[in-house]
Amino acid sequence: MSSLSLTSCSLSRRRFLKVSSSLTALGVAGAMLPMGMGRAFAAGEAGEVLSGSHFGVFYGKVEDGRLASVRPWEKDPHPAEMLDGVQDIVYSASRIRYPMVRRAYLEKGPQAERDSRGAGDFVRVSWDQALDLVAKEIKRLEDEEGPWALYTGSYGWRSAGRMNPQAMLQRLFNLMGGSVSSSSNYSKAGIEAIMPYVMGMIEAEGPQTTFKTVNEHSDLVVFWAVDPVNNNRISNTIPSHDEWNWIDELKAANKKTVFLNPVKVESCNDLNGEWIAIRPQSDVALALGLCHTLLSEDLYDKDFIADYTYGFEQFADYLMGKGSDGVEKTAEWASEITEIPADDIRDLAHRMVAGRTMIVSGWSTQRQHHGEQFPWALVTLASMIGQIGLPGGGFSQRYHLDACGAPVTNGPSIGSPISAGKRKETKEWPEEKGAQIIPVARVVDMLEKPGESYEHNGGTHLYPDVKMTYWVGGNPFHHHQDRNRMRKAWKKFETVVVQDIEWTASARFADIVLPAATTAERNDIEMVSPTCRKALLAMKKIIDPVFESRSDYDIFSALADKLGIGQEFSEGKSEMDRIKEVYEAAKAQAAGKKVEMPEFDAFWEQGILEFEVPEKNRDYVKHAEFREDPLINMLPTPTGKIEIYSKPIEKMGYTEDCPPHPTWIEPMEWLGQKDKTYPLHVNSAHPKYRLHSQLAGTKVREQYTVAGREPCLINTKDAEKRGIANGDIVRVFNGRGQVLAGAVVTDEIRPGVVRLWEGGWYDPEDVSDDNTICKYGDVNVLTPDIGTSRLAQGTSAATCMAEVEKFKGEAPAVTVFDAPKDAA
Amino acid sequence: MGENSLLSVSAPVYADAIRLCARLFGSPLELADVEAILRPEESGVLKPLIRIEGLSREVEAMAAALVALGPSQKAEIALNRAFCQLFMGLGGPKSAAPYESAYRGSGRLYQEPAGEMALLLRQQGMETTTDFPEAPDHLVVELALFDDALRLGAVSGDESDMATAEGLRERMEGWVPAFAQSCRDHDRTGFYASAASLLAALLARTVDWPA
Fold it and tell me: I need a labelling partner for A760 at 20 to 30 A (CA). Which of A18, A328, A718, B40 fits?
């Protein structure tokens, strides 16, 4: 054998095993665990550990240090089908195992070419080297440019628990002198912007009228663009799944339910509801048609309107055709837009005032162009019905998440263990350097238009000129719209750091990738069902971090050390110190309410602490106090009333995209438009078996993929017209991009509409091609990247038209998770 | 198993070949590795494989795949990209996860095979090196332990050492063909697909222990 050939390359040198360092302990479990897997195998003794996830409370069974299986907590009334995904997240083949740096970046730093981002040419580096690179770039930009050059608007649902890595990120950058951050979210920016003007609060937050009162008092429950069964599987924190009891009770009570939705959703089927297949994006028109019926037939509650609302006269004028458009919003007018027969609209209006009616809406109708209008129209309709503040009446904008209709317990609220703090003003931030906070969904606009002005919620701001971003616990290459535009704009960043648990599309398009531990691999604390505060959970570490992953707190602490702010960042506190602090604060708060909580150690040992529901809370009715006395309990709006007309919005002058009362404004693209180039509306609802894109990289995907791809629901007639059969691979495309998907031909979707769940991982065939096809089915390749209006500047993902065709030829190979199927 | 199962390879030769395979799958190839592989057969690093009868087709396929990738530097990048995609998780559904657990049972990583391999490593008094913090059922861990067991058995003649080696060979023979298929499905370079096919063919051979 040539000595040259065997000594000049790594093939001749590398060793992977060594003699164990503790031979004397042979046979003693734990002490003899091989070093590499020792970290992964030595965490727990055999047994079960109670912990939690976005999918529920669960026991993790540990065998030889491995998370061998999970089973739901015995008090979960309806465990989510995807709970096994918790195990998949830890042990996914897509797990980020080591710190990695894109080769070009490693060689040339921020001056490296950016075209090859996403091509997968990464080099494994040590933690030390990776953190040095990150620290060097942060320092360079803070010193040479300023905080306006760094974007930390990192957004995403991260992993469950109070140890929020996004707060850690903000804290670290604030200590360094600041950065550009973001406001609001991709879920409900429209509601968050408009409702404070209408109700003086974000209605979709906090406790809602309890499910119990709905069951006892409602005669009719209208589910408007919402599917509570589907969405309540997950939670922003840890779901209790208590809303399943409500669904069961509603069903048992044989309550009349109506579902206004282009898709016959799971809840509609479960409740045997009446499905009215409304035309997408015409919801405001339907609400106006209903309002007009109530007004013209003198069926509305005049007392409620007079005592509890402001600005009805202007709205009534608009309904009756006396507004600037001169169009009367009759049922016939609404029928043309919604494609619901006028008689059915009138009938629904009559039914709404015939008895007690609860109108439940979701958020998709505000994630569309002019999305601020529907929530406003809904409140106006509910006001005309006049049952707001009555048991089982009025409206709710959050029955589909976090069991917000469950009664609130006597438990304390729980704080944050990490404070982002305030920016250390190492440098002045001149106005011409741009905004310190941008609306989160406008990130691509910011990248494309540095220095340009934009309007938002009554203000005018400049987009800053950012050079670096650090993303943690989120996947912008999932949740942002118009993927091809975004890919191009992303090149503006000289440095992209992603800290995550899996190789998401965002990680693949990064320069520096840092492997984070999952919740199963670290300690944390969290409330089960955050609104009703059902129980406090000790989220114990089940196993040690696998591979070279580290907890977010560990990573940020190490990075802070590199930046010379280690002590300021950590304050000398460990992860457990911070968890304990949160608990002690909650305990003190509980004591104030005469609720006793055990000492921390006892709680930690116990694992979960359930709280009691005070009897009065079971019958909670939102706005009951306001209804009882609107003067003493006035709403925090300028008039103290529900504002059907808003003077503050009038002053903004957003006449074209957000007028001062609920208004029908034609969206940028929709089924009613004249141009039929792309004749199908694309519905991008929340997926059944994922949390947005979380779990897309796991085996849970096998429960729903079609031909190895995201399922694309298409109506039987639309499919026939296109020669598409169930199970076919289809190409969904428009002027913005194209994706492949697997056809599900069904009559449970309205003709003219197709549905692709949001959250499918972006899978470009050729990253160098600007219009490359996504082989897996990321719907945000197709959706437009425009703001809802100048008010919210939220996402308009639900405004999307496309065409579908049967894919011809050999489809690019995306044989999802077929490796196990090949196993012997 | 096919015709290869009729063949056997002497333990020391087998060990050299297995060690080389472990290194091929253990980390991305560096520029010097690529150049070493491209050297003439007799002086190249693939020599331990060439001298095993019946593997020449796969060895040639590996070399041909490398040549097709162009100049060494370009080849190094393409191979690195393939390594990341196939074995480091970047490929997601297009991966060829190098873990036994991925091909047995539920397909999740760190399952029973990992537990079994952890126990076996403990019994053998071995552990992974600090820069290779991998699951105990990682392909390379199994290969490395097999390599050691082959060498030990060849020298000691101890039946338990030989049984360990035989057990590992049979173990890998059970799942490496599926792994090789995944490599063939997803490796755009062809190099790792050929290397994995070669490994599967090699593992189909029995060990010829010294008398």
Answer: A718
Distances (CA, A) of A575 to A421, A553, A582: 18, 7, 11
User: Where do the structural domains in chain B lie, given as residue ranges?
Assistant: 2-208
Domain A208-407+620-652, CATH homologous superfamily name and number: Dimethylsulfoxide Reductase, domain 2 (3.40.228.10)
Instruction: Identify the CA nearest to B21 among candidates B205, B200, B158.
Output: B200
Per-residue pLDDT band for B92 (boundaries 50, 70, 90) equals confident
Best residue in A10, A12, A17 to probe B by mutation, most B CBs within 10 Å?
A: A17
Chain A residues near residue B32 by CB distance under 8 angstroms: 8-10
Structure letter (DSSP) for residue B117: H
Confidence band of A70 (pLDDT split at 50, 70, 90): very high
Structure tokens at A819: 């490796």
Q: How far, in Å, CA of A527 to CA of A539, rounded?
A: 10
Q: Are B115 and A64 in contact (CB under 8 A)?
A: yes
pLDDT digits (tens, 9 = 90+) for A735-782: 999 999 999 999 999 999 999 999 988 888 887 888 899 999 999 999
Report how many Cβ contacts below 8 Å link chain A to chain B.
242
Cα separation, A354 vs A374, in Å, equals 23
List where CATH 3.40.228.10 sits in chain A: 208-407+620-652
A175-196: per-residue pLDDT in tens? 999 999 999 999 999 999 999 9
Distance, in Å, from the CA atom of A355 to the CA atom of A291, rounded to the nearest integer, reads 16
Q: Give start and end residues of each alpha helix (H) in A362-495.
A: 373-385, 443-448, 476-479, 483-490
Q: Which of residues 153-182 of A touch B (CB under 8 A)?
A: none
Question: B207 is written with which tokens?
Answer: 């060990």
The CATH H-level superfamily of B2-208 is TorD-like (1.10.3480.10)
Minimal CA–CA distance to A232: which of A248, A218, A221, A255?
A248
B120 CB near a chain A CB, below 8 Å? Answer: no
DSSP H helices, B69-103, are 72-87
A549 touches A516 (CB < 8 A): yes
Q: Which of B35, B42, B134, B150 to mutate to test the interface with A (most CBs of A within 10 A)?
A: B134
Secondary structure of B192-211 in the HEC alphabet? HHHHHHHHHHHHCCEEECCC
Asked whether the beta carbons of A669 and A801 are under 8 A apart, the reply is: yes
Cα distance between residue A463 and residue B22, in whole Å: 52
CA–CA dist A329, A318 (Å, integer): 8
* pLDDT tens digits for range A24-35: 333 333 333 322
Q: What is the dihedral of CA B124, B127, B128, B129, to 10 degrees?
A: -120
Does ipTM surpass 0.90 in this model? no
What separation in angstroms does the CA of A321 have from each of A317, A534, A718?
A: 6, 49, 36
Cα–Cα distance for residue pair A376/A278, rounded to 1 Å:
19
Q: Strand pairing of A512-515 and A100-102? A: antiparallel
Catalytic residue among A59, A157, A363, A689: A157
Task: List residues forming the annotated binding site of A.
Answer: 157, 367, 475, 479, 522, 552, 780
Q: How far apart are CA A581 and CA A415, in angstroms?
A: 9
Nearest 5 degrees, angle CA A663-CA A664-CA A668? 125
A67-76, Cβ contacts within 8 angstroms, sequence gap of 24 or more: A67/A91, A67/A520, A67/A542, A67/A543, A67/B110, A68/B111, A68/B115, A73/A608, A75/A610, A76/A240, A76/A241
Euclidean distance between CA atoms A387 and A718, whole angstroms: 41
A182 forms bridges with which residues in the sheet? A438
Q: What CATH architecture does domain A680-822 belong to? A: Beta Barrel (2.40)
CATH 2.40.40.20 residue ranges for chain A: 680-822
